[in-house]
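Wed. Picked up where I left off yesterday with Glycosyltransferase. The coffee machine is broken again, so keeping this brief.
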Amino acid sequence: MDTENTKLKAFLFPWLAYGHISPFLELAKKLSDRGFLIELCSTPTNLSFIQKRIPKSYSSTIQLVELILPEFPQLPSHYHTTNGLPLHLNSILHKALKLAKPNLFTILKTRKPDIIIYDVMQLWTFGIASLLNIPSAQFFTSGAAMCSYFVHLYKNLDVEYPFPALHLLDYEIERARKLVHKNEKENENKDDQPEEEMPPQEGIMLISTCRELEGKYMDYLAEIIETRILPIGTLVQDPLASGEGNMNIMQWLDGKKELSTVFVSFGSEYFLTKEEREEIALGLELSQVNFIWVVRFPKGEKQNLEEALPQGFLERVGDRGMIVEWAPQAKILTHSSIGGFVSHCGWNSISESIEFGVPIIAIPMQLDQPMNAKLLVEIGVALEVVRDDNGSLHREDIASVIKGVTSGESSDNMRCKVRSLGKNLRTKSVEDMDATVEELRQLVGNSKSKNGSF
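Structure written out below (tokens, as returned):
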């Protein structure tokens, strides 16, 4: 085991979203287990979230580092996170983080880490690392399938995307093209992201996946971006570390029969429209399945549940349903009464669902989620609620898919598949992480041989 003096110091810099911070924290733990000292950098409001999720056993090897963002009148410090952030402030948060480059430079110059692992959401970090002669690697917190599809779309390649199982519907393609167009417009200003700040093609990208799950998509992604892809396995938090203060939830679940209940959650950053909320509520009611549903609203826009949900819904479902504002997702997914996960198909959520052997009712909303949903259907661990040509959900379809996953003809087979896959990924994730750590050590060693010690 390395001594304190010979351990390598890794500086981790995630995007300011819980969906990115969580896998970075799990990566921090795995690197710590393999002899690294970790410095995890984010804004104070995010660090308060992270601090509560660092087990005591890691308190000496994972250190939190504050990054202070410049002040904007419309972006007070409690908005220095995407959690609960009103959508119209998202671009300002991106701008504020970029304007904090001088602060990040000072932090890195002072702390002198051996390696920087930064989020692909802030590729400009490479420029700072290069100025300081610190080796670095990108970390993509979602899956390879989604990334390969959007890169293919962005590059406007002459050939069709080679994996028909991930074919998007017309309304999904239109949303994807709008997203790509938005990214192109944001990158038009060359002063914003100079070419010399961009990572080289021969660089390294860590990705939270396994070859058993996305092998062909990893290979295609590496081909079209000409970058080495290093899988680190799926990053799933320990369910016992998912928080206290949830006795009512767990007691309610204890009173339900085995596999009789679905967990319903759409992540920490997406907020359902009134129409989506109504169709999902009435779909749950029609399904006659027990459910626990996390219903969230943006900060400052909290609504009365009686008014936010269909009239009489709470009375009609009675004890068959529980509505909460927050829930310990990992802990719930391990409970014996859970027979399915109604999910937006964010990468962290589906990784947890596979890890804990829970089949998925896929209701993707945005970004990578439609691609993730189709990947899950392809490998046989999910059924997707297909929207109409306008992209609208319908309660009857939601109810039908919920019943299909929890008690339909294919439910037992789907459950066997997801449990088998979860078991295989647990083993493979350890192997992938060990191999990637050796690559990172070699990257640091090569840098020190070239540049000398810091």
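Quick read: The CA atoms of residues 126 and 199 lie 6 Å apart.
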